[in-house]
């Protein structure tokens, strides 16, 4: 078989589609620059800014916040690169790679968990874009701010922002209907606009804040070392959790790599640096708001609404909405659409998966997730990292320690192959996943107010601060123990690149 021709796949119905089939080496065109650009594009988004500003609002000074972000992104880069190797070698997406450890049917479990979290991110980005439109519209139509409430008080959703949120959501769904290709021009716009806007915001902060000196001189707000560490460790976990979703489904992108070096170098150059540099803008601007306004404003959309010029605010908010639209489609539609398609490839297309993502993104009440920094970090980022860490631990233990990077690609698409396990489910992987999640459940319930933290054993509650790490190592270790007696006869297939 020539390197440019795909291995013949005797795929069973229900396990393959055009979106899930392996990419032949000849069709792989992404080089180092593409992966660096991918991470620069995805890092330059409002949630990244809010990630940094939430640490400042939480009490860190500028260098503590930047160091936390750099460390978190350097840590998550490791599973990112390790999972990416499988995609680059075999040309398969994340849901198919998950079949090796969870089974050809059981792979739907990690795929759907990851997809549901992507739905949450889709909702968050859509809320940010919709609220930006509201900030613009209310300048010209002040009555939007005084519309009577139509939603229950428990929803904490004002009518004016709800209207622009729904309109922006409809725009996202229209782009899904047109197809991902329609977003290319917006991605180009974003690549030029956001760096310029970030520099302009940085210039404003430095000018209005009387230079960098007073801004960077802002001290940490912690009264003791113990208070700092109590905030640092869950924050670090949250930074890891920020890209924990992509650390799982990165094969969706690395399957297009021309070589292993392309994805390894491109991601290593693009992820930690772009996240840290753009976060610096968030750190400086948020610190400047305290100097200028006497209080920290961590949401850049709220901050922009304080500017005097109607035209300036309108242009800025419209640009934020457009760049958010581009980010949303690229980062939060492509992967969950593949994950939902994996459940029933013959019935769920990419567009249908995109529509499912959109509806669930509404139902997750995204405005509540980012209502305050503590909810953003401790409830959302740390919370879902406790689900994704165990999946990552199982997949990496399976691929590297058990299979030694050897997969039979045809059997990943067959109900009767070595990845069939028991009726398509590897119950050992499912058990390891559950065991890895359980230690973090009490802390999560305390974080969302369901349980009183005082009613939980302190040691168990403390585990939640390290949710991703606990889940990763517990599930990975349990999986290895449970699979120790499993006989394997791996048969490497074609479709590999070096």
From TrEMBL:
Please report the record's description of how this protein sits within the membrane.
Answer: Multi-pass membrane protein
For the keyword Nucleotidyltransferase, the answer is no
One Pfam family for this entry, by name? Answer: Transp_cyt_pur
Alphabetically ordered keywords of this record: Membrane, Transmembrane, Transmembrane helix
CDD domains associated with the record = SLC-NCS1sbd_YbbW-like
Which InterPro entries does the UniProt record give? Answer: NCS1 (IPR012681), Pur-cyt_permease (IPR001248), Uracil/uridine/allantoin_perm (IPR045225)
User: Where is this protein localized, as stated in its record?
Assistant: Membrane
Gene3D superfamilies noted in UniProt: Hydantoin permease
Q: Does the keyword ATP-binding apply?
A: no
Write one Gene Ontology MF term.
nucleobase transmembrane transporter activity
> Where are its TM segments located?
36-56, 62-82, 111-134, 154-175, 187-206, 226-248, 269-291, 311-331, 352-371, 377-402, 429-451, 463-482
GO cellular component terms attached to this protein's record: plasma membrane
Q: Which family does it belong to?
A: Belongs to the purine-cytosine permease (2.A.39) family.
This chain belongs to which protein, by name? Answer: Nitrate reductase
- Give the classification, highest ranks: Bacteria, Pseudomonadati, Bacteroidota, Cytophagia, Cytophagales
């Amino acid at each position: 078989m020539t390197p440019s021709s795909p291995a013949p796949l005797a795929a069973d119905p229900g396990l393959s589609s055009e979106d899930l089939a392996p990419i032949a080496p000849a069709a792989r065109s992404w080089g180092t620059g593409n992966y660096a650009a991918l991470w620069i594009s995805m890092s330059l988004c409002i949630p990244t800014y809010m990630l940094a500003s939430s640490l400042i609002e939480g009490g860190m000074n500028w260098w503590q916040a930047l160091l936390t972000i750099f460390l978190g992104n350097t840590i998550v880069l490791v599973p990112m690169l390790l999972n990416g190797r499988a995609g680059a070698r075999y040309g398969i997406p994340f849901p198919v790679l998950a079949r090796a450890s969870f089974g050809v049917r059981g792979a739907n479990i990690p795929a759907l968990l990851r997809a549901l979290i992507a739905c949450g991110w889709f909702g968050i980005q859509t809320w940010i874009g919709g609220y930006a439109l509201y900030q613009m519209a209310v300048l010209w139509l002040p009555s939007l701010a005084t519309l009577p409430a139509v939603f229950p008080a428990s929803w904490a959703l004002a009518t004016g922002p709800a209207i622009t949120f729904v309109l922006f959501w409809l725009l996202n769904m229209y782009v899904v209907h047109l197809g991902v290709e329609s977003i290319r021009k917006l991605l180009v716009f974003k690549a030029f606009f956001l760096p310029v806007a970030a520099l302009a915001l940085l210039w404003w902060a430095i000018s209005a804040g009387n230079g960098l000196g007073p801004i960077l001189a802002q001290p940490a707000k912690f009264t003791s070392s113990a208070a700092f560490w109590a905030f640092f460790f869950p924050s670090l976990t949250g930074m890891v959790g920020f890209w924990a979703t992509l650390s799982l489904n990165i094969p969706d992108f690395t399957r297009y790599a021309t070589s292993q070096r392309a994805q390894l170098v491109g991601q290593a150059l693009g992820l930690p640096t772009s996240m840290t540099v753009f976060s610096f803008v968030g750190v400086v601007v948020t610190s400047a708001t305290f100097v200028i306004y006497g209080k920290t404003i961590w949401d850049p959309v709220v901050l922009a609404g304080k500017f005097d010029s109607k035209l300036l605010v309108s242009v800025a908010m419209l640009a934020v909405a457009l760049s958010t639209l581009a980010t949303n489609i690229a980062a939060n539609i492509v992967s969950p659409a593949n994950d939902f398609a994996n459940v029933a490839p013959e019935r769920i297309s990419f567009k249908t998966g995109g529509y499912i993502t959109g509806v669930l993104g509404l139902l997750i009440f995204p405005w509540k997730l980012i209502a305050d920094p503590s909810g953003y970090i401790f409830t959302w980022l740390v919370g879902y990292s406790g689900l994704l860490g165990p999946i990552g631990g199982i997949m990496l233990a399976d691929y590297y320690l058990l299979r030694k990077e050897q997969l039979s690609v045809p059997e990943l698409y067959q109900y009767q192959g070595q990845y069939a396990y028991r009726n398509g489910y590897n119950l050992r992987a499912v058990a390891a996943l559950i065991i890895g999640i359980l230690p973090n459940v009490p802390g999560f319930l305390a974080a969302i107010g369901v349980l009183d933290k005082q009613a939980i054993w302190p040691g168990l509650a403390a585990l939640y601060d390290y949710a991703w790490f606990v889940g990763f190592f517990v599930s990975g270790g349990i999986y290895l123990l449970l699979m120790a007696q499993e006989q394997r006869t791996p048969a490497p297939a074609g479709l590999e690149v070096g």
